[in-house]
Amino acid sequence: MATKRLPRRVIPGATVLITGAARGMGELYARRAAREGAAAIALWDLETERAEALAAELDGSAGAHDVGGTAGSTPRVRAFTVDVSQREDVVRALAETRAELGDPDVVVNNAGIVRGALFWEHDPETDIELTMRINTLAPMWLTREVLPAMIADRTRPKRILNIASAAGTLPNPRMSVYAASKWAMIGWSESLRLELERDGQRHIAVTTFCPSYISTGMFAGARGPILTPIMTPERAVRAAWDGMLSGIPLVMRPWTVKLAMALRGVLPTRVWDAVGGRVFRVYSSMDRFTGRG
Q: Given CA atoms 28, 33, 37, 39 in this order, what sign does their dihedral have?
């Protein structure tokens, strides 16, 4: 039996919270929320000046009309300085967000960092612990805080969009900690989705987005595997956002991400190592990584 897709009329009138919202994909999610008629948008980031500049630009901008938003709708957009690696700061910022904009209807767990290095070159605190805190624990902390209100309010659809990575589906040299953080996120996100569905919370949809490399600067120097071009942020955001609106559980882009995941599942490990490493060149994709710097 085909899974029934949830209604796409999610954003008009909604309160949207985006982490890592000051630049890159976070900024694009914010712009799309404003275009589609969100009533309020919370921009969470440590880059205060960039977030405040974006908030000033989007605050009061007209919502888009092509998705059924109210003509001339003017979202309230506010920037909040938040260190998502600290649970206390997440709790504090959410209280401030609620006081000013109300409970979030849509949460985009977008904030993330990457350290491209051999595992033994990672610093235990500034690399390993910080990556796990930002990429894995922060989405859990924030989602745990917003869920009770989401569960209680059935007046409108709710959405949780978790930005994971293709790195969470395959091992890859020079990104062991990053891969670990995204493997954990996928496992948590998918389990959360099932828990909500089994509990009858059908008004809440959880979408996990697993993209390959995106040209935001975060993965500067990385090379896309064979048949896997580096995506533009616009293309990635479009895929994740549309999947979130439709309540699609797992969105993978490009198509080779799902292919590689399937091959690794059916092939013996050493055979996949040869195919993934020598044929698709997955294992050398981070050899020239420099990052945003």
A: negative
